[in-house]
Amino acid sequence: MNLAFSPPLPDADRLKSQRVCARGLLTVRRRGGRTRIERLSQEGAAKIRMPRTDADPLEAVLINTAGGLTGGDRLAWEMEAGVGSSLVVTTQASEKVYRASSGQQAETSVRLSVGEGGSVAWLPQETIMFDRAAFSRRLDVELAMGATALIAEATVFGRSAMGERVENGFFRDRWRVSCGGRLTHAEDFFVGPEVRAFLAGSAALGGAAAMATVLLVGDETESWLDRVREIVGEEGGASTWSVGGTGKLLARLYAGDGYGLRKRLVPLLGLLNGRAGLPKCWSL
Asked: Is 134 contained in some domain?
């Protein structure tokens, strides 16, 4: 990717700049009547913390100790939930993507795998893009037949309360979700280099600065549709499909700022995540 708005650093300066190269891995299995950790691995700035729970699902909190991402940083998360196990994954705070002064993009990859009868909820807090940031995010989900996944990603282009605006930058988001080896959901989103001008278009966000995508894959997704549409309101929409016998509910929301988005995202995720509700790290 050519980041024309930010020329690369000279080689000598680039060598002096530290870059994040981090990876976190968590595998859980159902044993003794509940979900338990089987394997946990942490490298670099990627940390995983497990709050104490008395019953399923198990909850994992992801932490990037680098305090954010910038050009050239690489962060990878891999989560696996075995047969009949349940896992909720969130982040300690919103991930911030700063200006890509190195002339490179920051990259995050997420891989989720769920066994038969298992469930995973991928519920990170918002990603906040700063002006002249360059960020690529990839999400790959593999579900066995009979597994359930709730996936949410929210992105805020500048914090209006702080007087921030994202005029230029790059953002690419790629999702691939399969169930029983069959592709169930795929999407690609890209904006840049003129971010604000693009998002102002009526076919984009109409000038809004925050957006979220929420995907539920599993059985009986149609039963949630009316309540989801009530929460989403006029600034967004929701639909359901059946793909190869697997139900899918997709909702998209947008708002003028991150707070306006969160006011609807919090009750929506609390609803779709069933009795597990919202992760403890989330709040209004």
From this structure: yes
> Domain for residue 284, yes or no?
no
d(CA 12, CA 147): 50
Q: Quick one: tokens of 134?
A: 């360059």
The domain tally of the chain equals 1
Residue among 218, 219, 211, 216 at smallest CA distance from 265:
211
User: Residues 6 or more apart from 122 whose CB is under 8 A from it?
Assistant: 79, 89, 110, 112, 139, 141, 149, 150, 151, 152
Question: Is 1 among the domain residues?
Answer: no
Supply the pTM of this predicted model: 0.91
Span 173-187, pLDDT tens digits = 999 999 999 999 999
Q: Is 162 left (phi over 0), alpha (psi -120 to 50) or beta?
A: alpha
Helix residue ranges per DSSP H, 149-257 = 195-199, 225-232
Domain hosting residue 106, numbered range: 11-276
- Label the pairing between strands 34-43 and 21-31: antiparallel
* Contact predicate 19/73, CB 8 Å: yes
